[in-house]
Design a protein that fits this description.
The protein is of the alpha+beta class. The protein has three helices and three strands. The protein has one domain: 60s Ribosomal Protein L30, Chain: A, CATH 3.30.1330.
């Protein structure tokens, strides 16, 4: 499972990067507490670099504060690693 953490555009780039790192780590920790094996998780943080909308708004900022999860089959992960 690939986890990606994001922040909204308010605040400095450094703050948003740290915030997205904390956010994705919290989700990773929760999944491990629920029984997911840590070696089956990868986590990346992107700060405010990928907003969902180009327009800044209260609603847009809300949805930019997120962690996305992408499920990947073990076979697909193995194939991706072999191509690198």
């Amino acid at each position: 499972m690939d986890l990606s953490g994001y922040a909204d555009r308010r605040g400095s780039a450094e703050f948003n990067q740290q915030l997205s790192e904390q956010r994705v780590q919290a989700v990773r920790d929760f999944l491990i507490q629920q029984g997911v094996q840590g070696d089956r998780l990868t986590a990346s943080a992107y700060g405010a670099s990928a907003p969902l909308s180009q327009n800044e708004s209260l609603e847009g900022d809300f949805f930019d504060r997120r962690v996305t999860l992408r499920l990947q089959s073990p076979d697909a992960a193995l194939a991706a690693n072999n191509q690198q």
